[in-house]
């Protein structure tokens, strides 16, 4: 846009910065104007200071598109409200520069379900979100609930396969009947038509793990008809990771859906180093023309629920059935044997690593356990680790999240460096406890540690992974890039100081070096502090 075409005045002008536009191209000096929620890129100094209601001086800083967190579990955090801890948790994402979160990952979303299944599902959501966030018949209901709760950044959601299964069959270990599969496909079709971003699976988690490949193919074909991706937490990320990747490839090929592998890793001592095989496999498929990508978080530890450390049969029937089994000494012994010997088709995190690598992140009624490993708690009590885990799950009604220290740095770096890998926090914002620091630190950690300190990525390459690449994968039209007419989602950061400060001890510490964040044309972070503005919305894609 030439000087003659400039708007008569800007709501916001960001002057003097290095523009890294999200495409991967080299940064260049430029000013950026915002008017009515849209962007105008200006040659340096072309717009006078008086031509804007607000000016941010960005000399020595980078001006980039707002970061897109492609993998979160933030579906219900704003619905918790301030009294439920939601405000503090949402703040952590915004302060690290995230202007759009994509939730509904790993097969778990807050929709859709048959009406008669909604009450039971509403009760189950407490385990994941630590509060009553509801369950909804479709994407439209989910979006309407969020519309009534102001938020600082934007939210998009995938449709969770596990939720579909629970919403039609319930939490049971059996194949879906043909009529049930048709109902699941219809619910998925409706939510995708309303604007959900794609289909996700979490094939290590019940009830999604109870499904065979054919069921997932049928559902992924629905996503393909909408031109939306199949996003998967593989059935195994440990000793059988290559086999699990091949299943995902088969699902993509048979269904016609683009494939996106969530938080790609090779975890557990039997899988360390296997990124040397999985990444060339993905690269070869891309060279053949297959549309396949992945995301990654820059940590060697993951986080999930403690119940996922138990064999799938233990969770058959849902929380009530699990609780009953945990109260039965014979069933506990059976769980112990399953962990020691393995179960066909089960990832078996503890068997691949050990209870000494599993620490408690959040146990609301037993905060003294938080930050300690199950092995440490067992040694202190003179008890068996499985019994300690079982007692904690029963006492907390299933509401226990954990951190699993299961990866090695070399594998993390390989995935980060892959040209088709984008960045996702896999953040699980839940009130209380010691959540994984990735929810507050992922994006600054990439920029500080892996760009500035280690030189693993070029600055422009890293920003592309966080913005333009992510927006393209999930259909975020007009986002993820800085160009004339694009949505005004921006972040201004200091490349010399940007860094994560969140730790496993203090997991919500805000980062250094993030100066300003703009969402929907409104400044939501200024000088590293929230402004209180709430322009965010649920995006229908």
From TrEMBL:
<dbReference type="GO" id="GO:0016812">
    <property type="term" value="F:hydrolase activity, acting on carbon-nitrogen (but not peptide) bonds, in cyclic amides"/>
</dbReference>
<dbReference type="Pfam" id="PF07969">
    <property type="entry name" value="Amidohydro_3"/>
</dbReference>
<protein>
    <submittedName>
        <fullName>Dihydroorotase</fullName>
    </submittedName>
</protein>
<dbReference type="InterPro" id="IPR032466">
    <property type="entry name" value="Metal_Hydrolase"/>
</dbReference>
<dbReference type="InterPro" id="IPR023100">
    <property type="entry name" value="D-aminoacylase_insert_dom_sf"/>
</dbReference>
<feature type="domain" description="Amidohydrolase 3">
    <location>
        <begin position="54"/>
        <end position="525"/>
    </location>
</feature>
<dbReference type="GO" id="GO:0016811">
    <property type="term" value="F:hydrolase activity, acting on carbon-nitrogen (but not peptide) bonds, in linear amides"/>
</dbReference>
<dbReference type="InterPro" id="IPR050378">
    <property type="entry name" value="Metallo-dep_Hydrolases_sf"/>
</dbReference>
<dbReference type="InterPro" id="IPR013108">
    <property type="entry name" value="Amidohydro_3"/>
</dbReference>
<dbReference type="GO" id="GO:0005829">
    <property type="term" value="C:cytosol"/>
</dbReference>
<dbReference type="InterPro" id="IPR011059">
    <property type="entry name" value="Metal-dep_hydrolase_composite"/>
</dbReference>
């Amino acid at each position: 846009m030439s000087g003659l075409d400039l708007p008569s005045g800007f709501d916001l002008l960001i002057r003097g910065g290095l523009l890294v536009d999200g495409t991967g191209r080299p940064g260049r000096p430029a000013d950026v104007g915002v008017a009515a929620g849209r962007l105008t890129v200006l040659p340096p100094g072309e717009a006078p200071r008086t031509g804007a209601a607000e000016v941010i001086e960005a000399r020595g800083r980078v001006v980039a598109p707002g970061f897109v967190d492609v993998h979160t579990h933030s579906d219900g955090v704003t619905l918790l409200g301030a009294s439920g801890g939601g405000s503090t948790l949402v703040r952590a994402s915004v302060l690290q520069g995230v202007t759009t979160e994509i939730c509904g990952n790993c097969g778990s979303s807050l929709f859709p379900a048959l009406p008669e299944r909604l009450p039971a599902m509403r009760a189950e959501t407490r385990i994941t979100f630590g509060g009553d966030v509801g369950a909804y018949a479709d994407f439209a209901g989910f979006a309407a609930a969020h519309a009534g709760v102001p938020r600082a950044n934007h939210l998009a959601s995938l449709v969770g396969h596990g939720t579909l299964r629970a919403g039609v069959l319930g939490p049971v270990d059996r194949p879906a009947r043909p009529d049930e599969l048709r109902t699941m496909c219809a619910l998925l079709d409706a939510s995708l038509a309303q604007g959900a971003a794609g289909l996700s699976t979490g094939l290590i988690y019940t009830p999604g793990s109870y499904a065979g490949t054919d069921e997932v193919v049928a559902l992924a074909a629905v996503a393909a008809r909408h031109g939306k991706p199949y996003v998967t937490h593989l059935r195994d990320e440990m000793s059988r990771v290559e086999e699990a990747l091949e299943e995902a490839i088969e699902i993509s090929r048979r269904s016609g859906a683009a494939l996106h592998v969530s938080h790609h890793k090779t975890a557990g001592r039997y899988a360390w180093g296997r990124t040397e095989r999985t990444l060339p496999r993905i690269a070869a498929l891309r060279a053949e023309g297959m549309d396949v990508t992945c995301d990654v978080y820059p940590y060697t530890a993951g986080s999930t629920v403690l119940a996922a450390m138990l064999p799938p049969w233990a969770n058959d029937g849902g929380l009530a059935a699990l609780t009953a089994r945990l109260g039965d000494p014979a069933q506990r012994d059976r769980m112990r044997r399953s962990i020691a010997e393995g179960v066909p088709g089960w990832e078996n995190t503890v068997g691949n690593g050990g209870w000494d690598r599993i620490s408690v992140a959040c146990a609301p009624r037993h905060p003294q356990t938080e930050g300690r490993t199950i092995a440490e708690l067992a040694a202190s009590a003179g008890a068996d680790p499985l019994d300690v885990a079982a007692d904690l799950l029963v006492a907390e009604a299933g509401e226990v999240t954990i951190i699993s220290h299961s990866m090695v740095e070399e594998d993390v770096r390989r995935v980060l460096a892959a040209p088709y890998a984008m960045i996702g926090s896999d953040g699980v914002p839940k009130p209380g406890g010691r959540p994984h620091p990735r929810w507050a630190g992922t994006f600054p950690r990439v920029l500080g540690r892996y760009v500035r300190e280690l030189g693993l990525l070029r600055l422009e390459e890293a920003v592309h992974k966080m913005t333009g690449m992510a927006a393209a994968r999930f259909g975020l039209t007009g986002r993820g890039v800085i160009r004339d007419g694009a949505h005004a989602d921006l972040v201004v950061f200091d490349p010399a100081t940007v860094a994560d400060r969140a730790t496993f001890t203090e997991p919500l510490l805000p980062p250094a070096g993030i100066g300003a964040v703009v969402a929907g044309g409104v400044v939501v972070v200024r000088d590293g502090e929230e402004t209180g503005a709430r322009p965010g919305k649920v995006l229908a894609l």
